[in-house]
Design brief:
Layout lengths: L1 H7 L11 H14 L10 E3 L6 E3 L19 E9 L2 E10 L2 E9 L4 H7 L1 H9 L11 H15 L16
Antiparallel strand pairs: 1-2, 3-4, 4-5
Helix pairs in contact: 3-5
């Protein structure tokens, strides 16, 4: 069930037959983690003879009820994060509610380190999350990219990898 939530990028999934209450608990926890508010458990209903659980997401800001594929409005968003040598600016393209591309608009990072750090963009896209590991050997640059993507999408309080005291990547 959790795999289906991740694959669909949505808590709107079928409950497990014989484990309806547990399934509803998992759906509720996923909705809560994704910031979808609920008033009470009455927002969940299961059609008689069906394991399909419907979730009322009327409180989910910016969420399109007809397009249950993601949580961001389609478009291109620009954000900035702090790298080792200054700001890193990115354009993040969202299609069908999911991040589909991350373009580096500007950066003053060292080429060698930044080339390593760029792999974090593929990981962000594949995991649909900025909560990914920074690239070893390019920590500050990959932290900057992650922060820029988070800024573009309006995500706050991401956990960045610690940087060595001597300021090395």
């Amino acid at each position: 069930m959790t795999k289906e939530i991740i694959t669909n990028q949505s808590p709107f999934v079928d409950t497990v037959s014989g484990a309806t209450m547990s399934s509803r608990g998992i759906i509720e926890a996923a909705a809560d983690a994704l910031g979808i508010q609920q008033n009470d458990t009455d927002n969940y209903s299961s059609a008689e003879g069906s394991d399909k659980t419907e979730y009322s997401d009327s409180n989910a800001e910016g969420y399109d009820n007809e397009q249950k594929t993601g949580y961001f409005a389609d478009g291109i968003y620009t954000g900035t994060g702090k790298g080792r040598n200054g700001d890193i600016t990115v354009n993040v393209t969202v299609s069908e509610g999911k991040v589909v591309s991350i373009e580096i608009v500007s950066s003053k990072e060292d080429y060698k380190y930044f080339q390593k750090a760029l792999s974090v963009t593929d990981i962000i896209i594949s995991q649909q999350s900025v909560d990914v590991d920074s690239v070893s050997g390019a920590t500050m640059s990959s932290n900057g990219i992650r922060s820029a993507v988070a800024d573009a999408l309006g995500i706050e309080n991401i956990q960045l990898a610690p940087v060595q005291q001597n300021g090395r990547h």
